[in-house]
Amino acid sequence: MFLASPQSGRSGNPIVPGWYADPEARIFEGEYWIFPTYSAPYNDQLFFDAFSSKDLVSWTKHPRILDVDHITWAKRAVWAPTIVQKGEWYYLLFGANDIQNDPQLGGLGVARAKHPAGPFEDHLGKPLVDKFHNGAQPIDPFVFADDDGTHYLIYGGWKHCNVAKLNADFTGLVPFADGSAFKEITPEGYVEGSWMFKKDGKYYFMWSEGGWTGPNYAVAYAIGTSPFGPFVRAGKILSQDPKVATGAGHHSVLRAPSGKWYIVYHRRPLGETDRNHRVVCIDEMRFDANGAILPVVITIDGVAPDLIRP
Ligand code: FUB
To answer: Quick one: DSSP state of residue 84?
Structure first.
């Protein structure tokens, strides 16, 4: 794998060795954590590794925090985890089996553990979402915790995105007032890989667009007044740089205790064309005075140390 030498003291990009994609960055137990997809042929995607750090520069690998041997219904293509802490449990939601139609077994699963490094065990014994709703392939889950304590599941591939409300113990969904469980919030350009955060009372909805196997994969965003939007595309903020890397996308956002914002994403090293040769990278994410996200400068040097407990 191509590894450039970063400026001394900085994280460098990629931040961890190995082919990984779809990184979910979170802060748990006084550390930064990253939960990526193991980027390999679908039949080899049978586990998740995680990584933790106190400064964004040195990362410790936690191997096989989830293994499909512990998820009876999951057989392959275990993808794009999202993780949230509630009470004494960490809930990890993921896509599995890459289902192509409703009769196939698979979709979005839920596993839980008492520590972010696992071991994660199946919470339901079956998928939480196992059908196509509003045209959305059940992959790429993201759990958004709103200020009122509601946990929303935002997910979907095949250019459709749904939002649903999770119940208290993540064993099911709570129907909306009209009886439906899934509301479509697909913005223009959406393909997959959603992420949401709240800043200054506004809901920032972000997603990946383009094809993940090619160089033009990218991240765009919209701003809304609720988790249901409406979300009007504001523009692209992450994409390839022919001098640095291609296929930059499927990201997450980290707000460090220092107040700095970071984007954690995957990209393909220059010269690599294998679709699975994706690496996890980090760069700073900045806003303008009106709250718009500025285009991210993707770097080889990565970021400076940002101690989680200075
Ligand atoms: O890594 C598997 C798939 O690649 C994800 O679920 C997609 O969003 C794409 O990033």
So the answer is: E
Residue 165 CA, distance from chain mean position: 18
Q: Give me the number of domains the chain comprises.
A: 1
**What is the domain range of residue 90?**
20-285
* CA 208 to ligand 1 center in whole angstroms: 10
Q: Which residues contact 268 (CB under 8 A, 6 or more apart)?
A: 215, 245, 246, 247, 277, 278, 279
- pLDDT of res. 309: 79
CATH at residue 51: 2.115.10.20
| Nearest atom within ligand 1 for CA of residue 37 | 1
Instruction: Name the band, by pLDDT with cuts 50, 70 and 90, for residue 8.
Output: confident
Q: How far is CA 49 from CA 120, 121, 210, in A?
A: 11, 14, 26
| CA contacts within 13 A on the Cβ side of 71 | 35
Q: What distance in angstroms lies between residue 193's CA and the mean position of ligand 1's atoms?
A: 7
Catalytic: 209?
no
The span from the CA of 174 to the CA of 200, in Å, is 27
CB 116 within 8 A of CB 28: yes
Q: What is the pLDDT of residues 65-92, one digit of tens each?
A: 999 999 999 999 999 999 999 999 999 9
Question: Domain for residue 293, yes or no?
Answer: no
Let me know if 284 is a catalytic residue.
no
Among 134, 285, 303, 95, CA closest to 197: 285
Task: Give pLDDT tens digits for 249-280.
Answer: 999 999 999 999 999 999 999 999 999 999 99
**Per-residue pLDDT, 100:** 98
Atom of ligand 1 nearest to the CA of 77: 2
Out of 37, 78, 142, give the residue to mutate to test ligand 1, the one with the largest number of ligand atoms within 8 Å of its CB.
Answer: 37
Q: If you compute the radius of gyration of the chain from its CA atoms, what whole number of angstroms results?
A: 18
Instruction: Point out which residues pair with 264 in neighbouring strands.
Output: 252, 282
